[in-house]
Amino acid sequence: MDVAAIEVDLSGLPRDTSRPDLEEAILAMAPRKWLHNPKLCAAQVELERRGRQRNQVLARAAAPLRRAYLAACAEVCAMQTSCLAYDRIVGRHLAHAVGIEVPGIGCFTVSPRDWQALILADAVDIAASGGKGLITIAGALRKIRQRGWLRCRFSGLTEAEAAAIRANGTSFDYPANAVAAWATTLSRLGILLPAGAGDRWIVWQLTACQMRGHQTSKRL
């Protein structure tokens, strides 16, 4: 009948409760809940309607954004390597550690080999010299930004825009998550070891020893 109704629970009152105490319980003290509120129901319907409209608008806006992102992914995957750090990685016999395609590669303006080599090269050089080759997400992104290798259009998307791009299965993620996914892959390959709460890694000691062994062989 769409009539507003509240349930007041008096089951906890003694059977000999006085009339004044009963009035206080009914008006103020006893537990209560809405059984039906026409205004709340109408508001919920309106919220759901607005939510559907917002999702439709976002989906229409995401379509060209998704196409642009996929085009960016194809572009960077077809690029030739231009970073000198890549040659250093190859010299360390770690070419398989870079050029790994992870969600978010379209957020960069260069090949995955370039930005991944840029991040890894200094760390492996330090590790090969007996130091602690540390990689952090913050440090990696700082190096990449200094080179101007980030596409502002994709690295600054809202969560709703990112979710809309992913809606049809497109493999999108933010640059920080792309770096983390790549470093996690290197952990599975036995090249890096996690050294923090998902935001830092160090070059695995065995990898460092192998690189030092290659250096000794070259000198001999």
Q: Gist?
A:
By secondary structure, this protein is mostly helical. The protein has helices at 19-29, 38-78, 84-91, 112-128, 137-146, 152-155, 159-166, 175-188, 205-219, and strands spanning 5-8, 32-36, 134-136, 192-194, 200-203. Helix 3 (84-91) packs across helix 4.
Which features would summarize this protein structure in a list?
58% helix; 220 residues; 5 strands; three-stranded antiparallel beta sheet; 9% strand; 2 domains; mainly alpha; single chain; two-stranded antiparallel sheet
SSE blueprint:
Layout: E1 5-8, H1 19-29, E2 32-36, H2 38-78, H3 84-91, H4 112-128, E3 134-136, H5 137-146, H6 152-155, H7 159-166, H8 175-188, E4 192-194, E5 200-203, H9 205-219
Antiparallel strand pairs: 1-2, 3-5, 4-5
Task: Tell me what the structure shows.
The protein is mainly alpha-helical. The protein folds into 2 domains: 5-36, no CATH class; 56-219, no CATH class. 58% of the residues lie in helices and 9% in strands. The chain contains 9 helices and 5 strands, in the order βαβαααβααααββα. Helix 3 (84-91) crosses helix 4 (112-128). It is elongated, with a radius of gyration of 29 Å. The mean pLDDT is 87.
